[in-house]
Amino acid sequence: MSRLPVIAIVGAPNGGKSSLVNRILRRRQAVVSGEPGTTRDRSYSRAEWAGREFTLVDTGGMEPQAKVGLQALVTLQARVALEEADVILHLTDARTGPTEADAAIARELRRASGKVVLAVNKLDNPADDADRHLFHTLGEGEPYPVSALHGTGTGDLLDAMVSLLPNLDTDEEDELPRLAIIGRPNVGKSTLLNRLLGVERAVVSDVAGTTTDAVAGEVEAAAGDEVERYILLDTAGVNRSAKRAEGVPFYSALRTQEAIRRSDVSLLLVDAVEGLVGGDLQLARQIEEAGSSCGVVINKGDLVEPERIKEIEGTLFARMTDLKPPSISISALTGDAVESVLPLASRLYRAYNLRVPTHEIAEFINQAVGKSAPAKGVKIRFATQTGSAPPRFTLFANRPKDVQESYLRYLENSLRARYDLYGVSVRLRVKSSR
Ligand code: GDP
Question: Bridge-partner residues for 8, per DSSP?
């Protein structure tokens, strides 16, 4: 898997974290409102600056003094985010000046392993700029002035943060692929995990680069003459220590997110009795946003008639038009068809890591353009694969802005059909050929 470096944004409630995140992502994804804590469920996004890709983690407001209640939980979440952050942005609010809460956060950040960058938000007028010097007292170095509202200062801030990111292009190729079984409570995740793991649970403490908590075990499947091995992430709290936090729904949602982010393949478990519900679609969206690959496993097939499975497959087809995930149906309880779970994962893993030689992709796109041309006057001159896991392609056109979304969809679907990219997000960018 590709571990991206992580930038976490922390700060007291209402400092403008989500507005800043929106600025950085250039899209309105997080919910922004005047109420403290409204982004407490919002977590990971992929972002890019100056050619560096990273994961941006937004946290709810941190109140280190809070010991109980929701605020304590949100603070706990922020701490989890800090654990894995390579760079931590401490966002403060010029309107309040450095507060007691800011000082408490600064104290906490001194113990974190990530590098800390301090920014002062809401400096909407250049005239107020001097206010930021008050924040030197926090002992976190030079404060960067920003206005999330106007977008000023964010470029310098991003430059500073990105320059502190570590280089993670290590030989992770050797690592085993990671598989996450994702699903709403009670769809049968633990039942399936335990089936896949069998009675002899692998010892996982020596799996490189993983915390024991996050891993349920290692699984093997025969693939022709070869044996494929996967690391199965613990999305159901089958590990004892993880189980402790299972009662806290917020925590299990966080674990799900984390598993999706770490996984190469996410299998979305759907309950055959309940059918495809909103929560399933939301998880599918999370999988897509995180850039993992997605297959659907319809579970509890023993409780329904075959027509019901067909019906769910129809709904899948109609509702999950972005990823078009492949699906199978099983019964984790009786073990029926469970042997087809790993082959599905394997198919997705191959699609996820697809690499097509440039001449082949150029030729393929050429043919697709021949079959159906883009808008009048638009010429697509060249295409190449620019990344994998998930696969990314770049097209070069004479008038990139005139290549319509619907046309990109057409090319995406052609690629999907040709290379079996079902369940994998296909990213197409258009650049100017001039
Ligand atoms: P989790 O919350 O997603 O980990 O779900 P569990 O694995 O704990 O399963 C929830 C309940 O559904 C348990 O009572 C399981 O025995 C039951 N269950 C899981 N898979 C199946 C299945 O394939 N068929 C039937 N009939 N019940 C199942």
Answer: 57, 88
